[in-house]
Amino acid sequence: MADTKREIERKYEATDDTRLPDLTRAAGVDRSVHRGLTELDAVYHDTADLRLASDALTLRRRTGGADEGWHLKFPVAVGIRDELHEPLSDDLPRPLAALLRSRVRHAEIAPVVRLRSARDVHHLLADDGTLLAEVSVDRVHAERLTGEGRGTTAAWTEIEVELADDGDPAVLDAVEKRLRKAGIRPAKSSSKLARALAETTPARNGEKPGKDTPRTAGDHVLAYVRKQIRAIVDLDPAVRRDLPDSVHRMRVATRRLRSSFKTHRRILDREVTDPLGAELKWLAAELGLDRDQEVLDERIGSRVEALPAALTLGPVRGRLRAWSAARRTG
């Protein structure tokens, strides 16, 4: 499995003339150390219809910097993403491709945007030398590689503040306070890719059509069906990563979708839903095996925790984890 880290960061608007304020005046920050300039070259990949970007996922192959390689980022909350990393290679690593399968299906994943950044890095340290956050001033040049805007470029400067591993989010609040006092405001775009796509996509006349409001019984049924399909697609990477409660939630969505096919068989096309129902039955059975193991792990784990320490000498928990992993993959 790819290396995973939780990325907690905030982005701010800037210009070439913007200068960082004295961030040592932020609460908890003792000193700022300039780490120098790094050149980064990242090529972002997606399907032709930008399925990953539409779900706020980013997939890139980046050279330069300490963590060059392939990066896949899943949104967790505002300003928080899980970043999976694989070593640099020419082709998309299979572990990352597997996590994208539910979204891209059989569509080709290809380069869509190239971002070249000159990153000026500063480390914010506590009085004991602990790294609190990394502040970067990025001068970005974007080029659209495909689609209607192919060949279109854009350039901007932004400030990025990333919390150190296991850092206190209060540091981000303290740094933001100093940045705001200096007239620096949060960025409107959630990511460099989102901004690059927005600024290299040709303008269209007219407004985008709004979502249709369900009116008939069939509309409401289809809206519910789409909701369960969306849940299954979204949870697929989490299940493959063995994230807590993901198997249970995906199993629930599978059961609900299958049930809706049966309940509304007079509305839905059975030539389509009956074969899908059979596939969902198979999927539920596969998920059930993992879910049963999850429940068993929880029960055994709670019983072990309740035992006196004298009865749990040695690598008891490690053996339980190995036993559980063997049953899941057996």
TrEMBL record:
Residues 214-330 form the CHAD domain. Pfam families: CHAD, CYTH. Residues 190-217 are annotated as: Disordered. Residues 5-203 form the CYTH domain. Residues 205-217 have a biased composition (Basic and acidic residues). SMART domains: CYTH. Gene3D superfamilies: CHAD domain (1.40.20.10), Hypothetical Protein Pfu-838710-001 (2.40.320.10). This is CHAD domain-containing protein. InterPro entries: CHAD_dom, CHAD_dom_sf, CYTH-like_dom_sf, CYTH_domain. It comes from the Bacteria. The lineage of its organism: Bacteria, Bacillati, Actinomycetota, Actinomycetes, Kitasatosporales. It comes from Streptomyces parvus.
